[in-house]
Design goal:
Elements: E1 2-7, E2 17-21, E3 30-39, H1 42-48, E4 60-61, E5 65-73, E6 85-89, E7 98-102, E8 106-108, H2 115-119, H3 122-134, E9 142-145, H4 151-162, E10 166-170, H5 176-182, E11 185-187, H6 193-200, E12 207-210, H7 214-222, E13 230-232, H8 239-242, H9 257-265, E14 273-278, H10 282-291, E15 297-301
Parallel strand pairs: 9-10, 9-12, 10-11, 12-13, 14-15
Antiparallel strand pairs: 1-2, 1-4, 3-5, 3-7, 3-15, 5-6, 6-8
Helix pairs in contact: 3-4
Bound molecules: NADP nicotinamide-adenine-dinucleotide phosphate.
Length: 303
Amino acid sequence: MARRVIYAEHGGPEVLTLVEAEIPEPGPGRVRVRVQAAGLNPVDWKTFRGGGMYGATLPSGVGNDFAGVVDALGAGVTGFEPGDAVYGGARHQAEADYLVIDAEKLLHRPAGLSLEQAAGLDIVGRTAIASVRAIEVVPGDVVLVSAAAGGVGGLASQLAIRAGATVVGTASAANHDYLRSLGVIPVAYGDDLVERLRDAAPGPFTAALDNHGRHSIDSALALGIEPRRVNTIADRSVVAEYGISDVGGGAASIHDLPELAQLIASGEIQFPIDSTYPLEQVREAYEHLMAGHLRGKVVLTLG
Ligand SMILES: NC(=O)c1ccc[n+]([C@@H]2O[C@H](COP(=O)([O-])OP(=O)(O)OC[C@H]3O[C@@H](n4cnc5c(N)ncnc54)[C@H](OP(=O)(O)O)[C@@H]3O)[C@@H](O)[C@H]2O)c1
């Protein structure tokens, strides 16, 4: 038997339960993966809390991002062999010893990309790529990135810098040295943010990537950034009213990830692991994620 995290009613991390599960069989075109690590995302807890089900039905599995090894192939699968190191995203399935996924949604893990990094890449990687594309960064841009030390913010900041922008990022003081190490000018969020952002920036802001919500969006507009160059992934409620965009991970595909994975593997982009927890401590892992002050990814290890 294998293990799987499920929840049968909505609530906090206390609803998450580790249960025994059948080992799934891969049908035609599908691959069974033995999951070795699974990355956590805020959308997981927003889903098990009941805030929007993203296609889940009760009882539901948990988690999207995973990395592991190919365990068995369904009929007609080419390009993978048992034992290959792989990663990807499988909504509501990742926190389990085994999952089954379409071969075309699976990626080979490159040398140099750690198991934990691969296990945390799908959602934040696609989201960072898509949101940076949405604001069409050009050299010379000065870009505000909120929650710049988080999973999406850290990657989006570095992608914007690689496209020629200067990035000013908000984070708590504990993350300021980390942001400097990414090449980001750090500013603490909180009172008088607009004034402090203006003081920190080398010139007028021209675009913004919001990864936290309303306060950052209002600050971006107060800085005089054109609404069409403000993108939020964290608060859709004001998108129509303000004329900003809300391009998220759904606008990028898994096939956008290998280039980013290679940059991480080669050390050109930093992608830190905030912490790891064994699968048995899934509740504690989500409590840590939900406390909201991370530097990179929280990852479950399945052994
Ligand atoms: N639409 C989409 O496709 C999509 C995809 C992925 C994520 N999201 C959403 O985007 C948000 C960020 O996701 P994530 O995975 O990057 O989260 P994360 O890794 O949990 O990062 C959260 C970050 O928020 C920062 N933070 C906490 N309080 C803050 C405040 N008052 N102002 C500014 N920053 C603050 C923390 O920085 P400090 O430690 O420095 O405080 C932390 O680094 C979540 O709401 C998530 O649901 C949307």
